[in-house]
């Protein structure tokens, strides 16, 4: 069947032609075959070049006339066009379906990792008439095989120069889509709090952190429990740094009470950069510091209560080898409000999407 | 397609021995081809229309490859390391795809179908020839999303590892810590390097010249 709304450049592309005259011409539509109880599906696909040997088959299917595409050299069929678009958009870690379905191609994650989308070039791409690409959000952790984006040429036939313009834009901004593989790290955890250190309450942070690391293939090498003592916290952070730890995580002691000294302890360990406070709820009192390339994160107590916090937004980026800075942290503001749903559906929600 | 006995004989020869796995594999492949409506998949034009995903690397796999003509080098044979005696047959032209799994029940039923044979191995071999298809196999209609980098045909994608300079084909590179890497550099290799052998003179065997080998069809 033809599309209901033909694009201007499609007007002269279709020709109704007798089957016996169609050899060597390109089908403008799928031809479905139905064999009761046995098979239903396309026997000939849109874009297929009719062969002499197909004539009997087509006539058996009741076809006496066909719509064939008669494209001039400046016109490209949507199925060919979308392959070029997908090829230009898909960077490392991104693959796509071999064959368009209904004119669309889905971009797919080739392995687990962090999706990177260049949003501005993607917007520019979509300003070009007759092409489109829609994606999931930048910085989304993805699994191998996950759908990342879908693209298509909007009309059935697209002008070659428009297609070239879109391909050129995507190629110039390459990669518009990429998946950064996660590093598998061995982390060390410092749990702070007099109440835990003195055995008044049982720690629950260790299991949470271990589970969140394990989700990305990383592990917890060591956990220590310390009192709210700035010097002990500093010396333990330094010791972990000297041991070559990939990632240091601290929990608790991030608030403004006199006993909350963990952030002071991290500063006292001689770190290079500290970002304290983040535009995310829950997680406003989150701390992110670096000593060389080693990140040190300070998770406030909200990490115990809320299933998803800023830690879930920052951890995949750290594991992907990124070092979020102050601007990155501020950029989390748009989408940084967790709605505290009764059942947490993260990452299938607006939290952390900006 | 040739008849079962002829295919079994050829398959056993190609594999190196006749075994129950050959019988299962030949029958599975014949059934798979029938389901996706290819009667001559070893030759043009059908050779370009078939992809088979095998889920185990055991005897039956060789039989499936023999009957269907699929090959790793043609990219028409895909190995999914699931340890399951199953294969999925895909017709690239029509998108028809069927997964066929060998049943465990068929092992228990072998004695019923070849009671006169006492040797378990020979009993299975004969029983699998006689057993009805629905006892031997479970069949599923499936949809297989074949990605562009897994398709047969010329190499479409190449990247160079920024760590070891090796060229990586077919989108198997990994983007890690801002670098394009081969999988060995990114995730570790399946081997442990002992020594580079770049400076060793390799004695080449004298080759005997025969008629030039010509590929039946372009890859």
- Total number of helices of chain B: 7
Q: What's the domain count of chain A?
A: 3
Q: At the third CATH level, what is the topology name of the largest domain in chain B? A: 60s Ribosomal Protein L30, Chain: A
How much of the sequence of chain A is in beta strands? Answer: 25-35%
The biggest sheet of chain B, with number of strands, parallel, antiparallel or mixed sense and barrel status, is:
5 strands, mixed
Tell me what the CATH architecture of the largest domain in chain B is. Answer: 2-Layer Sandwich
**Cα-atom radius of gyration of chain B:** 21 Å
List the helices and strands and how they pair.
The complex is a heterodimer of chains A (354) and B (219).
Chain A (H helix, E strand, L loop, with lengths): L13 E5 L7 E2 L3 E5 L3 E6 L10 H6 L4 E5 L5 E3 H12 L4 E3 L7 E6 L3 E5 L1 H9 L3 E5 L5 E2 L4 E7 L3 E3 H13 L4 E5 L4 E7 L1 H4 L7 H10 L4 E8 L3 H13 L4 E5 L10 H7 L4 E4 L10 E5 L2 E6 L2 H4 L4 H10 L6 H6 L23
Helix pairs in contact in A: 2-4, 7-8
Chain B lengths: L3 H12 L4 H16 L14 E5 L4 H10 L8 E3 L6 E6 L5 E6 L2 H9 L6 H11 L2 H4 E5 L16 E3 L6 E3 L4 E3 L2 E3 L1 H5 L32
Parallel strand pairs in B: 1-2
Antiparallel strand pairs in B: 1-3, 3-4, 4-5, 6-7, 8-9
Helix pairs in contact in B: 1-2, 1-3, 2-3, 2-5, 4-5
What does it look like?
The complex is a heterodimer of chains A (354) and B (219). Chain A folds into 3 domains: 8-69, Molybdopterin biosynthesis moea protein, domain 2 (Alpha-Beta Complex); 75-181, Pyrimidine nucleoside phosphorylase-like, C-terminal domain (Aldehyde Oxidoreductase, domain 3); 186-331, Molybdenum Cofactor Biosythetic Enzyme, Chain A, CATH 3.40.980. Chain A has helices at 55-60, 78-89, 119-127, 160-172, 194-197, 205-214, 230-242, 262-268, 302-305, 310-319, 326-331; strands spanning 14-18, 26-27, 31-35, 39-44, 65-69, 75-77, 94-96, 104-109, 113-117, 131-135, 141-142, 147-153, 157-159, 177-181, 186-192, 219-226, 247-251, 273-276, 287-291, 294-299. Chain A is elongated and about 90 Å long. Chain A has 11 helices and 20 strands. Chain A has 354 residues and is α+β, with helices and mostly antiparallel strands. Chain B is 31% helix and 17% strand. Chain B is built from 7 helices and 9 strands, in the order ααβαβββαααβββββα. Chain B folds into 2 domains: 4-148, 60s Ribosomal Protein L30, Chain: A (2-Layer Sandwich); 154-187. Chain B has 219 residues and is an alpha+beta fold. In chain B, α2 (20-35) packs across α3 and α4 crosses α5. In chain B, the strands form 3 sheets. A 5-stranded mixed sheet of chain B has the order 2-1-3-4-5. The relative contact order of chain B is 0.12.
């Amino acid at each position: 069947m033809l599309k209901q709304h033909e694009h201007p450049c499609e007007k002269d592309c279709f020709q109704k032609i007798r089957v016996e005259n169609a050899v060597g011409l390109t089908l403008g539509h799928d031809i479905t075959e139905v064999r009761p109880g046995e098979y239903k599906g396309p026997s000939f696909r849109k874009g297929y070049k009719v062969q002499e040997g197909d004539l009997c088959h087509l006539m058996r299917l009741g076809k006496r006339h066909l719509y064939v595409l008669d494209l001039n050299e400046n016109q490209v069929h949507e199925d060919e066009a979308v392959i070029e678009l997908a090829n230009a958009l898909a960077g490392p870690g991104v693959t796509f379906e071999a064959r368009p379905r209904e004119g669309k191609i889905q971009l797919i994650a080739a392995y687990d990792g962090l999706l990177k989308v260049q949003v501005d070039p993607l917007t520019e791409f979509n300003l070009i008439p007759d092409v489109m690409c829609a994606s999931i959000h930048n910085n989304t952790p993805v699994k191998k095989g996950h759908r990342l984006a879908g693209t298509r040429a909007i009309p059935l036939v697209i002008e070659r120069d428009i297609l070239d313009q879109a391909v050129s834009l995507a190629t110039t901004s390459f990669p518009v889509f990429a998946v950064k593989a996660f590093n598998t790290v061995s982390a060390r955890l410092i749990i702070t709090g007099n109440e835990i250190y003195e055995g008044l309450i049982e720690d629950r942070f260790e299991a949470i952190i271990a589970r969140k690391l394990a989700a990305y293939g990383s592990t917890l090498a060591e956990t220590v429990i310390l009192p709210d003592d700035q010097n002990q916290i500093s010396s333990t952070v330094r010791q972990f740094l000297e041991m070559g730890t990939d990632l240091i995580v601290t929990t608790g002691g991030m608030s403004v009470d006199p006993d909350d000294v963990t952030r002071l302890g991290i500063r006292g360990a001689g770190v290079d950069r500290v970002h304290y406070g983040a535009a995310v709820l829950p997680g406003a009192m989150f701390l992110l510091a670096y000593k060389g390339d080693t990140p040190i994160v300070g998770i406030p107590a909200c990490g115990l209560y809320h299933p998803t916090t800023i830690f879930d937004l920052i951890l995949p980026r750290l594991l992907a080898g990124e070092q979020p800075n102050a601007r990155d942290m501020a950029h989390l503001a748009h989408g940084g409000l967790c709605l505290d749903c009764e059942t947490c559906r993260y990452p299938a929600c607006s939290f952390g999407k900006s | 397609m040739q008849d079962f006995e002829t295919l079994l004989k050829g398959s056993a020869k190609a594999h190196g021995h006749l075994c129950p796995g050959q019988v299962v594999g030949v029958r599975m492949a014949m059934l798979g081809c029938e389901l996706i409506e290819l009667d001559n998949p070893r030759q043009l034009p059908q050779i370009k229309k078939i992809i088979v995903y095998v889920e185990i690397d055991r005897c039956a796999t060789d039989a499936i490859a023999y009957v269907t003509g699929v090959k790793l080098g043609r990219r028409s044979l895909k190995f999914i390391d699931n340890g399951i005696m199953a294969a999925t047959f895909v017709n690239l032209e029509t998108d028809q795809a069927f997964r066929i799994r060998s049943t465990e029940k068929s092992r228990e039923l072998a004695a019923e179908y070849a009671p006169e044979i006492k040797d378990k191995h020979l009993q299975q071999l004969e029983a699998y020839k006689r057993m009805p298809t629905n006892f031997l196999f479970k069949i599923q209609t499936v949809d297989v999303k074949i990605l562009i980098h897994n398709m047969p045909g010329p190499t479409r994608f190449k990247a160079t590892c920024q760590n070891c300079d090796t060229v990586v084909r077919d989108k198997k590179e990994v983007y890690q810590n801002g670098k394009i890497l081969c999988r060995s550099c990114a995730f570790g290799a399946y081997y442990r390097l002992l020594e580079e052998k770049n400076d060793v003179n390799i004695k080449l065997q004298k080759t005997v010249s025969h008629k030039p080998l010509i590929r039946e069809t372009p890859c």
